[in-house]
């Protein structure tokens, strides 16, 4: 996260052994999660600390969060390697009344078109038989 935005995480506990290792790991994860929200990742894309520390099926949620960070990096103009597709942006369309009603004046070819329509070839292939 500090590569994407320098200084985003001010305190990082280095890997160490001891009785407080699990608490340090959890604090590192919480610092990361707070930094990504400040960076522009939606709160709904965050994962819970337990998804990463426990041995459950939460790894898919963690990967979705990492992809969300990749989308946010592209949106924020990160020049390095990217991960995943670019996030869509709000792009409203403004049509005048004439354009909106133009489709109602047109009659599609499916309405009343019978030239060439037949049931010829409907039994193409093997015919239906009781003895099959």
From TrEMBL:
PROSITE patterns: CALPONIN_1, CALPONIN_2, CH. InterPro entries: Calponin-like, Calponin_repeat, CH_dom, CH_dom_sf, SM22_calponin. Pfam families: Calponin (PF00402). Gene3D superfamilies: Calponin-like domain. Residues 1-73 form the Calponin-homology (CH) domain. Belongs to the calponin family. PANTHER family: CALPONIN, TRANSGELIN. This is Transgelin. It comes from Mya arenaria (Soft-shell clam).
């Amino acid at each position: 996260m500090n590569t994407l935005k320098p200084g985003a995480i001010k305190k990082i506990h280095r890997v160490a052994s001891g009785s407080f290792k699990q608490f340090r790991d959890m604090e590192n994860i919480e610092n990361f999660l707070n930094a990504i929200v400040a960076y522009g990742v939606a709160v709904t894309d965050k994962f819970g600390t337990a998804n990463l520390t426990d041995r459950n099926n939460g790894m898919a949620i963690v990967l979705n969060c990492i992809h969300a960070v990749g989308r946010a990096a592209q949106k924020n103009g990160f020049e390095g390697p990217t991960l995943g597709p670019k996030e869509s942006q709000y792009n409203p369309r403004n049509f005048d009344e004439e354009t909106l009603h133009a489709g109602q004046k047109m009659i599609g070819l499916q309405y009343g078109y019978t030239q060439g329509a037949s049931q010829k070839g409907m039994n193409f292939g093997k015919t239906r038989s009781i003895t099959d």
